[in-house]
Amino acid sequence: MAADLAATSLTLTGCTLTGPAPRRIDFGFRLDGAGNVVVAYPLCATHEIAGASVHVDGAGDGEDGDGFTTLWSATTPSAEEAKRGVFTVGVKSGFQTETRPLKSPFPDGFYVSVTERNAVGKEKEGQDHWVTPSTLKGRQLGPDEYLTDRGKVLTRDGINAQAHCAK
Question: Which H helix or E strand runs over 83?
Fold first, then answer.
């Protein structure tokens, strides 16, 4: 059971069991005025977001065939803020295309995953992270503050400082 869970987790994050363990990178989360989850994704200055999606563990193989079910996905950010890594999940307004519109409310726990585009236009799977929206309710955060899943408050710059960027 534990081995299955570890394999599933590693599959979702794109990690393998060879070499040193990857450094953990935290996304930042907050709720907007309407109660939607806003994500602050750690991003290098030369990269931008190409797309984002929300997944949950699926029964059996899940609808996606990989043990997960996609609840929402969008591509091609239209808002500069979304290109730079700050976007609202389940809301098309920051993206040109919603490839899977949200059909029902999110559960109180889901994975957010991101596709990145580098300076020369090459896309790659970015990081993914778990969020539990109920942990965000009632949290008083400053205008540029986000909560990590470990309860740490970081600014947008603090979140970006975690990204593996060439110096």
Answer: helix 80-83
